[in-house]
Design goal:
This protein is of the alpha+beta class. It is 17% helix and 45% strand. Strands 5-6-3-10-13-8 form a six-stranded antiparallel beta sheet, with no helix packed on it. The protein starts with a strand and ends with a helix.
Length: 222
């Protein structure tokens, strides 16, 4: 199985190319197109409780869609709700994603939610994170363009919490206000930032979905 991306950076589409009988998973509603003969099954992956946890706690869909290629193989094209980049990585590296980032993956990849700690909750990501483990490719989507930041041992990087897409499981981070004091925070227009420490890789998006929703709320009529 192979996942390739086209139409980056603004309106990316991930194509999952499958061999005979191979299967892939995708977020509910992510399928844009597919080749003839591909079978579709939508279900609560991992059972009711696991699907409920993934949906309620980490913002992913309750039902996941499984696509199965016919004899001779086939493909599925997946696209995200917001315009932006898509990146593909190997789940064997241990990737942690923020809510709404997961798009599709090989059937062999396990997608689960776990508690990321209060530091992550106050960072604006809801406390729970999506963990992609196992073997195989995983596609994650972002809003805007995507940057991959590699940190060496002991190297640090500061990121606004709303711009985080994911990071390798080896990363350590703390969350804090970007400015000292409530008034300085309000005046700066910035909220909370995440202080990452290497080694590891961080994936970040150039646009903040929450800021976009907030702007729309202000300008759209009731």
């Amino acid at each position: 199985m192979e996942i390739t991306v086209r139409h980056n950076p603004g309106f990316a589409v991930a194509r999952v190319q499958m061999g005979s009988g191979e299967e892939c998973r995708a977020e509910s509603g992510a399928m844009m197109a597919m080749s003839g003969g591909v079978e579709i099954e939508s279900k609560a992956e991992g059972g009711f409780m696991k699907s409920l946890k993934r949906s309620v706690l980490s913002g992913e869909s309750f039902f996941m869609t499984t696509f199965r290629a016919p004899d001779g193989g086939g493909f599925v094209d997946c696209a995200a709700r917001l315009p932006g980049d898509i990146t593909v990585f190997d789940a064997g590296h241990g990737i942690v994603l923020t809510k709404g980032s997961y798009l599709c993956s090989a059937k062999s990849v396990e997608i689960d939610s776990s508690w990321g700690g209060f530091k992550n909750m106050w960072g604006g990501e809801g406390g729970f994170l999506v963990h992609a483990t196992g073997q195989g490719p995983v596609a994650a989507a972002c809003y805007g363009a995507l940057d991959a930041i590699d940190l060496a041992e002991g190297e640090t990087f500061v990121l606004d919490s709303g711009h985080l897409v994911g990071y390798t499981g080896t990363m350590n981070f703390t969350t804090r206000k970007v400015a000292k004091g409530l008034m300085q925070t309000l005046k700066s227009g910035e909220g909370l930032v995440m202080d990452f420490q290497g080694p590891g890789r961080i994936y970040c998006q150039t646009r903040n979905p929450d800021e976009f929703v907030g702007w729309l709320t202000q300008v759209l009529p009731f």
